[in-house]
Amino acid sequence: MSHALTPLPRHALAPLQRRAAASAPVLPAVAVLALLTLPLTPGGAGPADVVSGLMVVYCVIRLLRERRRPLSPATAMVLGLPVAGLALAAMEASSPEAGLTGLGRYLQIFVLVPAAVLLLIRDRADFRLLAWSFVGLALWQGAIGVHQYATRTGASYQGADIRAVGTFGAQDVMGMAAAVSLGLVCAVGIALGRASVRQRAIAAGCALALLPPLAVSFSRGAWIATVLTCAMQLVLSGPLRALKVVAAAAAASVILLGGFGVGTALLQQRIDSIAQVTDAPDQAVVDRYTLWASATGMWRQHPLTGVGLKGFPEHRDGNATLALSSGAEIAGAGVVYRRQALLSPHNMYLLVLSEQGLIGLLTLAGSWLALLVCGLRGLLRARDRGPGLDCGLVACGLLVWLLTDFVYGDIGGPSTVLTAMALGLVAWWALAGDERADIVPRRGVRELVEEAAAR
Fold this sequence. Notes:
Elements: H1 10-23, H2 27-35, H3 47-66, H4 73-91, H5 96-120, H6 124-151, E1 155-157, E2 160-163, H7 175-191, H8 197-209, H9 211-215, H10 220-237, H11 239-259, H12 265-272, H13 283-301, H14 312-319, E3 328-332, E4 335-340, H15 348-385, H16 389-405, H17 416-432, H18 445-454
Antiparallel strand pairs: 1-2, 3-4
Helix pairs in contact: 2-3, 2-6, 3-5, 4-5, 4-15, 5-17, 6-7, 7-8, 7-10, 7-16, 10-11, 10-16, 13-14, 13-15, 15-16, 15-17, 16-17
C-alpha cells in the first residue's frame, strides 16, 4: 500500500489561496506584533520598531504604485494635528540631536505608524485579523509571565523574582502588562460583538485566560485601565449582555482567586496599595508624585512650548524635591541588580506638558479626543443598526485603555510600538470604518431576514 501524501485538489486550494491573497496587505502589521513575541536584547531599537518603520515605507511605496490619495482631508487633519506641537517642541530642545530624535519617535508612535496601519486595513476582516493578533501576542506573553511567576524566574518584586514580565525583561516591566491588557481588551470586544457563537466563546475563554498573567504582572496602572475599559465595553454593548457577563466574570473570579490560590498575600497587598495615596505610600508612589510635581514645575516655567523634546531628564532635579530617590531598582529575569534612572514622570500627559507645553498637549490630546468622539459615534451606529459591533468595541476599548493608562505611564521601551499599532486600529474604525465596509456579495430580502433571526 502506498503511503504517499495525496495532494489537495485544486478546487480545495482555491479558497485558501484567495484568503491568503486577501490578507496579504495587512500582513506587515501582523508581523510587527509577531516580532514582539521574541526575546528582546538590551539597548537599541527592537526588531518590532525596525519593522514598523519598514511597514511605513512599504505603505508609501504601495500608495505611489497605486497612485491613489492616501488620506481624506479630515483624516489627515486628525492624525497630523500633533505635528504642530511636536515641531515647536523640537525647536526648543537643548540640542538638534535631541530635537530630531524626539521628533522622530513621537511621529513614529502617534502619526506615521497609526496612519500606515489605517491604510493597510481594507475592511473589517483585516481589522479582526489584527485584533486576534493582539490576543495571540497577549496569550504568548501571558504564558511566559505565568511561568516566570510559578518558577520564580521573573523580575524582582519585594525581594522575590516573581513579577511576570514576559520577554520584555526587567528593563521594561510594564511591557507584558500592556501586551496582556490590550489583548484582553480585544478579546472582550470580540466576545461582546455579533460574531459566531464559536468565535465569541473562544474570545471569552481567551479573556479569562489572560486574567492570571495580568494579575501577576503587579501593574496597578494596567489593572485600573483594564477594569475601567472592560466596564465601558460592557455598558456600550447593551445592559442585558452586561449583566450576563458581569455574573460570569464574578463566578470566574471566585474560582481563580479562591480555588486556584491566585490571590496571594503579595497580590492582595498590591491591590490594597492602590488606595494608599497618603497613608504610608511605598517609595514607588512617592517617586511618582515627586516626578509629577517636577513636570508641573517645568511647565510653569515654560507654559507654551515646554522645555523641549527629551528635556525632562535634564530639568528633573532642578524641579524635584529631596523625596525623589536615586532611581528604580531592577533585577531578575536574566538581569543583574542595578538602579535605573527615572527619566520620565510616568504620566504621558505631564510628560507632554513639561516637554511640549500647552500647545503640544492641546494638539496631541485634541487628536485623541477627535478619535474618541468619532469612534464612539461609529460604535453607537453599529450597535443600533449595523455590523461591526465587535470592531467598534475593540477600537474604543483600545483607546480608552491607552488614555487611562497614560495617567500612570508614558512612552518608552520596546513595548511602545504596541501603542502605535493600537492607535492604528482606533484610527481605522474612527476615520475610515464607514468608507471601507466588509466586501460581501449582494443578498436578497430572504437571506437578510434569516441572518437577522440568527442573531
